[in-house]
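Homework help thread (please don't just give me the answer)

Our assignment gives two proteins as sequence + structure token strings and asks us to describe the second one. The first is just a warm-up. Here they are:
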Amino acid sequence: MTHPPMSHAAPPLGSVVRMLLRRTIDTYRDSPQAAGWLEHNLSRFDEPLRVAIAGKVKAGKSTLLNALVGEQIAPTDAGECTRIVTWYRDAQVPKVMMFPRSAPPRQLTISRGSGGLSFDLQGTPVEQVDKLDVQWPSQSLRTQTLIDTPGIASLSRDASARAGAFLAPDDSPSQADAVIYLMRHLHATDVRFLESFYDQGVAKATPINTIAVLSRADEIGVGRLDALSSARRIARRYRADEKIRGLCQTVVAVAGLLAETGRTMRQDEFAALTQLSALPRAEIDAMLLSADRFSRTDPDSTDVPDREARAKLMERFGLFGVRLSTTLIRQGMTDPTAISTELVKRSGLDDLRTVLSTQFAERRDLLKARSALLAIDLVLTREPRPASAPLAAEVERILAGAHEFAELRLLSTLRSGTVKLAPDVLAEAERLLGADGGSAAARLGLDPGTGPDELRAAALDAATRWKRRSESPMSGRAVADVARLVVRSCEGVLAGLQR
């Protein structure tokens, strides 16, 4: 058997774009605004990935952020701070900075309530605040900066406009490298927003940097114990929809409240749930017919949490969380740590974390390079000059020639249904192009612990198969073009395994 020829390893995309950024900075040294903007984007390469959390009002954005961090820091009530774009970054000591639109930044006093942090804006109207910067010691924030955005389609035009201006600005690239978009169900507003966020331009194509989350998944089926199974079926149906596939990388079902509570559950809450689980099954089931009934109905037994305590439990766990927790305790799970772990597992948060790792963390350099190229393009467009012509040509060369961007374009094409392939062939093509993650194992559909010899053999086999498909007289031109690019991806895997 003849093996496909190996390609010479190209310089890493991140290194190439960094060099271009530095050249562009040198060219625009006499323009403080342009040079400052470019310097800022150069420094972004060394920052954690910026991940914005977006969605309509009450989609559960702040709750999901708290679940990802593992701590209640984002306010989850409908206060004024939820109308401001708020950044959450890792730091050695807690600090919150406010950035007014027409005044210097200043530090705010932090107070802690039952629903996350609260900030005193010191009399500054929300409309005059550009953003809040929350610096908080957190292991989870070391690899990604999370950005909480106001609700899309909010009754407050200002809040909705803020979210749109941050996520899809008209005159500059977004400050976020990637987006988690929350929706309670697929609504026309969600589709319109994803469409507005998507751009057919090479570097701006966003399915690669957008994940959709079917949020508050535990509320499907009125909090029944099979609610999350139903939500996962709906998410799978959305993932198979050609329209949605063309607008986001994948759809994951997550019960954000369950995940947040699982990661932050307190001993007194576990004790209260243990008391409730001791009630007769029929009695606790009757209480859990609705949130209001659970809080207001007094059971016959006196050894149960009072109304106020039950109302707080409902606020923290929801109907599904209380029902699941008491069921687990009745089944013999008496360790609060085990209960917390099970809540997080069932919430879908682990599934989302896996997707964030494979789709965002493994593509960190690609997403950062994409943001940098958009920043360079903005400067070249706004301040054209003769010396910038070679820079513009280099941007075009990178976009056209970098295999990473070719993969993005082809993934978008395949997801749109433009090229017709058999379902199993399409699934393999998308996987080899990196749809399930950029690692060799993910691309080849193998276990992460697979050894290099087995990975190499699988990559050679895939490259040979797709090379035959590219040369087959039965393949039309479009299919042959797809196959040739997939072969290049296989060769890239092989080159990476040789390093």
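The one we have to describe:
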Amino acid sequence: MQNTPVSSLVGEEYEVEVGPVAHGGHCIARTEAGRVLFVRHALPGERVVARVTEGEETSRFLRADAITILDPSKDRVEAPCPFAGPGKCGGCDWQHAKPGAQRRLKGEVIAEQLLRLAGLTPEEAGWDGTVMPAEGDKLPQGEVPQWRTRVQYAIDADGHAGLRKHRSHEVEVIDHCMIAAPGVSELGIEKRDWENMASVEAIAASGSNDRQVILTPKPGGRLPLVELDKPVSVLRVDEKDGGVHRVHGRAFVRERADDRTYRVGNGGFWQVHPKAAQTLMLAVMQGLTPRKGETALDLYCGVGLFAGAIADRVGEQGAVLGIESGKRAVEDARHNLAAFPRVRVEQGKVESVLPRTGITEVDLIVLDPPRAGAGKQTVHHLAGLGARRIAYVACDPAALARDLAYFADRGYKVRTLRAFDLFPMTHHVECVAILEPVKKDA
């Protein structure tokens, strides 16, 4: 019995009316035959010619790029970056939209995910529907916020630095990234040869003048002598164990938030937008309103940003437990929080460590999980601890909405939700939801 060959539709073109925005940096359209397209480089209400980039006759949906704009939206602008557009760099999703329109689109995605996955309207989530720009990001038309303090450059076969194309391993060679922070751009990564390297990550701390590059060699590749335009520390990724090792300079960068310096080692996690850590810390503290003597959990705590802010506010009679899976991040968190004797940081996955702590009740919880969210098991455990307030920091609205539904099942409702545009030009958005237990009728 022979298998019937599946016919690829890549390269096929359809003239379509563009529908609503969807999660992931694209809009939804349908062909005359009713086939669903996920169209990038388009805006709602436009009429475009869309060329298929992924999909077959049997696919549930096709991915496509808008290659010709027949009827443009009033929100459309010419992409300021020469490397943005169909078939080019995949780093930005909304270069072709006005900044205010980008935030509206992100707000529509959040609202759709909340309703579909958590059954919540914006009003029920305590959200006014707006996505707030970061301080300093409102710029004249044509100017782009230079916010990305960490840039992972891919290296092509000729040793040139660039960025990956959308959903591809292909490299779009660039001479400048418009959204890169000045501290990254001034290193001049794009100007030099990176032969034998698979990737180069550039980090420019916003809380200090610390600069760092992390080199990932190709298998068997020798490390180059790194001479950049500014003083910089150099680290390398070991091809055997995947660990990050210092070559020269500091193994960490210093960041600032809440009038405190945080050490972040070996390329560990810190918010990428220079205003993000402070913005999110304030949103969490305003939502939790910590009181003297309270106890708190900081889950997925990284290098201790929220644990430090809470510890400062609950005072010497309070206590904070942080849980983080990364070994180096735990070392940094313990260093960063050494001034607080009532703060403890445990290493391991939250779902494994939390049950072992023996904690049965707590006043406050903050969780900042990875993109996949915390999940049903962890949420149900947290809901059983009786916290008066929970702050959920989310970089993915779908994961947030799913977890909010799990919290609702266990008696927690959303008190307020705030959204922040901490990733301009991309589809990513950051949310802070504050939850509290539902009051039981007497």
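TA reply:
I won't write it for you, but here's a hint about the kind of observation we're looking for: The mean pLDDT is 95.
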